[in-house]
Amino acid sequence: MLDLAIHAGTEPVTLSDISLRQDISLSYLEQLFGRLRRRQLVVSIRGPGGGYQLAHETGDIAIVDIINAVDESVDATRCQGQGNCQQGETCLTHHLWEDLSQQIHEFLRGISLADLMARHDIRQIADDQDERRELIVRDLSLSS
């Protein structure tokens, strides 16, 4: 999502470009973006020149919403919050890890894509990834 936000413009961003820049398999990205689309965090544009665009402004998309959309967990408990950590019973430190999970959740709720984009090093990292992508594309076209 951060890659999509950084490269957002008038044209949709393709998953193949994100795949090359982030070194994430295309099939996995397709699964993730299907979930993000169903949660209305991204919009799919079909056809030639198609790809994905953010469905909301970057300041309106909290990191916790992205994590929830793709069914990831920020649960620090061993039992995934069920309280059956130790042979079906609550372990001594269950509440500690449960509290930590809640703190992580609240922390991520307070961070938006815009906040991440505002970090001083993000643009340089994205530029480096763009250069790597261009080299990969060039190498692939030369070997064809």
Automatic annotation (TrEMBL):
Pfam families: Rrf2. GO terms for molecular function: DNA binding; DNA-binding transcription factor activity. The keyword Plastid does not apply. Keywords: DNA-binding. The keyword Heme does not apply. PROSITE patterns: HTH_RRF2_2. Gene3D superfamilies: Winged helix-like DNA-binding domain superfamily/Winged helix DNA-binding domain (1.10.10.10). GO terms for cellular component: cytosol. It comes from the Bacteria. This is Fe-S cluster assembly transcriptional regulator IscR. It comes from Pseudohongiella nitratireducens. The lineage of its organism: Bacteria, Pseudomonadati, Pseudomonadota, Gammaproteobacteria, Pseudomonadales.
